[in-house]
Amino acid sequence: MKPQTAVIICNWNKKDYLLPCIGSVLDQTYRDFDVYVVDNASDDGSAHAVTTQFGGRINLIENETNKGGSGGFNTGIAAALNSGKCYEFLYLLDNDTRAEADALATLVEFMLTRPEAGIAGSKLYYMDGQPGTVQEFGAWLDWERAFIKPNKKNYSEVSHGEITKDIEVDYVPACSLIARTDAVKEVGLLDESYFLYWDDMDWAWRMKLKGYKIFGAAKSKVFHAMGISSKKDLLTTYYFWKNRVRFFKKYGTATTMDILLGDVFTAIYTCEAFEKTNTKEIIYRAAIDGLKDIGGRADFKNAEPSLTLDIRKKFVSMNNARVINVGHVILDAAEADAAIYADPYGNTMAAAEAWKLKLAYHAAKAKFIENLRRQDLVR
Predict the structure, then answer these.
(1) What is the pTM of this model?
(2) What is the 8-class DSSP label of residue 162?
(3) Paired sense of beta strands 213-224 and 117-126, if any
(4) Are 247 and 147 in contact (CB under 8 A)?
(5) Cβ-contact 45, 17 below 8 angstroms
(6) How does pLDDT run across 15-71, given as a tens digit for each residue?
(7) What are the DSSP E strand ranges found in the chain?
(8) Which of 87, 103, 69, 81 is nearest to 33 (CA)?
(9) What are 315-339's pLDDT values in tens digits?
């Protein structure tokens, strides 16, 4: 008898993606599974559509409130563990994915042959627009930059050949991962205080601290729509920065935090230079909340700062100008000349202005850090 697996899909207001996602799961070559769809209080008719189209073929759980990605997955995991069935594996899948027919079979096979694995993730591809391009295939935690280092991000298998080797990493995205149930029982569920972002990093890192290994399984292929739709507000910016601070404060060293706070200040300083007031204030609040270890869902109703995306107010035309490509328009500025700096983030700035901002950078950063010390947020 093959191992029983609980497939858990978390959804919030993505009905048009969710239905094909469920369809791709029900079409898997691996058949020893049950499907748990957790709807996080969607208002787009997701729950009704799932019931209408799939009926008793899936277990639908409707949360009364939006519990975020971590809370939604935990709802499904808890339901599976309390169902009375002996699931050897838990397969987590985002609502905006579409799994190839053997995606689950290859993940189960991988876990059976690698007993040291606590988690294994699929090779993720962009769903539209970039055929054969890998979105991500696992990732590492970059402690020297207090950030993440995705593996094979934007790698073209069409141009450079198919990735066929499995790889050990620090974490895999929760949009398509299989977890060993025994490991989950030992380590615990996802940390719901993250609500959105960095919950999968935390989960995998806790697995590693318990001695389990994390892998990317090359034969398991899943298409993911993340990044296709345009950004609507700054809410994701808030959660990403806040939880990044919380994660590295929890697991990093004093040196790690110094690097991270430097990165926070650089982002704020750059936003101010380009008059991105809302983004600057959101990142600042995220950093403060992260240093205070404030978790859970944030409430921005009738409160500052605004989540509205900034309208670009500052633009430097590069027509007939000498353009110098740099890593960062301010930090990499050299002594002023008549050129224009351009960086990979889409920022452009006259070299003379960039040089002035660079000269003022270190004093402004010291003032920023001292302000955090006065609030007793850093030592």
Answers:
(1) 0.94
(2) -
(3) parallel
(4) no
(5) no
(6) 999 999 999 999 999 999 999 999 999 999 999 999 999 988 999 999 999 999 999
(7) 5-11, 33-40, 59-63, 89-94, 97-99, 117-126, 133-136, 139-142, 147-150, 155-156, 167-169, 176-180, 213-224, 323-325, 340-342, 348-350
(8) 87
(9) 666 677 889 999 999 999 987 677 8
